[in-house]
Design brief:
Layout: H1 2-13, H2 18-39, H3 43-46, H4 50-79, E1 88-93, H5 99-111, E2 115-121, E3 124-129, H6 132-135, H7 142-154
Antiparallel strand pairs: 1-3, 2-3
Helix pairs in contact: 1-2, 4-7
Length: about 160
């Protein structure tokens, strides 16, 4: 967590100077310390293994690709008025066990244009889809498979 925060600090500042790195190091250490104390995180939670970083980066890349693809689908619906929009509310069971992964999935679905996560209750998720085509196969989408694989590897 410390390294990730420090890298974000440097990237968002746009340049590397001794002062920026020093302030970033102090602030990153303070935020990491507070996260450990306030949220009760363990050392293994704060230090993310390099393999996990690769999987998270892959998940983020898949999310960006899906957002772009969905944007194009929504634009098609908007700019082709002859196409009939068939909104749908779907409820499905999610095989994920970790609450954090459920939150990541719900947020990923909401970030994707044309879909909104309406609710999560236990292992069930309710999603509103702008069109029936957006809801097709949502219970076994790439996001779910990637998060399942991450859970299996962390166990």
């Amino acid at each position: 967590m410390y390294i990730a925060l420090l890298i974000l600090w440097i990237v968002f500042n746009g340049k590397i100077t001794l002062e920026i790195v020093a302030v970033g190091a102090v602030l990153s250490a303070a935020v990491t310390f507070m996260a450990v104390k306030i949220f009760g995180l363990r050392g293994s939670t704060v230090l993310v293994p390099p393999g996990a970083l690769v999987r998270y980066a892959g998940y983020f890349a898949a999310l960006v690709i899906e957002v772009v693809r969905s944007c194009l689908q929504v634009m098609r619906l908007v700019y082709h008025p002859a196409e009939e929009v068939r909104p749908q509310l779907v409820t499905f069971r999610v095989p994920l066990k970790k609450e954090g992964h459920m939150v990541v999935l719900a947020n990923s679905i909401t970030l994707t244009p044309g879909t909104i996560t309406v609710g999560v209750q236990g292992d069930r998720m309710r999603v509103y889809a702008l069109d029936k085509s957006f809801a097709d196969g949502i219970e076994d989408c790439d996001f779910v498979r990637r998060l399942e694989k991450m859970e299996e590897e962390r166990s």
